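Checklist before submission:
- one chain only
- standard amino acids only
- sequence pasted in full

Submission:
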Amino acid sequence: MGESLALACGCPSRPYVIRDAGGFQVRRCTYLPSCALGAHEHVEDRVVLTLCGRFESVYGSRRYLLDARRAMFRPAGVHHADVYPFETICLSIALPVDVVDRPAALALGDEELPSIAERLSAEVDATDSAAPLAIEALCAIVVGRFRVASHDEQQADWVRCIRERIDGEYADPPALTTIAASVGRDVSHVATTFRNAYGLTIGDYVRDVRIWRLRRLVEDAAIPLAEVAQLGGFADQSHFGRLFRRRFGMTPGEYRRRARG
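Returned file contents:
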């Protein structure tokens, strides 16, 4: 059975579950709303899956938005920080120390990740003798998908250039035809490759970046919410409110009240 322990960071107060199998160690962690882990690092390579909720992970100047369809590879010894706007449950897979073929890609977008994470979580709780083998196999599948993504990413550095451009121009993003021309690729190829790399269409990624950047302004009661929406490139405050609620599970007003409380 998994072992329940208190999180070392002291936040949240709920326990997590640990299960070892074939050199892998799986931890299921529950993070409470507004939990934030400052700059820290891990002694082993890890892969993080999200069972429910969403969170933000920051590596230097690079920011990753993670949910059930997007996983993260955390290289050992690399500083990062995490922010959990509301309750999030994650599976953290510590890789064997003798792993040779380490993934190169940090982020993985995959539509099958939610079902894999649910199966892995169920096996963590299983008590039969086949559970360790099932856990090891599922962990190997996840790591294998990262290795494939690493190869694809090395072949498509231009995709990262597109993402970085969007990160900098999210309030007034260029047209897809302009983006494609800037990297010398066909529009349909750019759209498909970007979605495969990050688990979101370019349009949805722009909205995600806007919402995550604006949440800090939402916390500032001195800035009217209508102005926050306008600063983020939303002509319609109600549209901003709908997207914000879809992303954070509450309206901007509710989020502001919770932050003040």
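Reviewer check: The domain at 3-154 is CATH 2.60.120.10 (Jelly Rolls).
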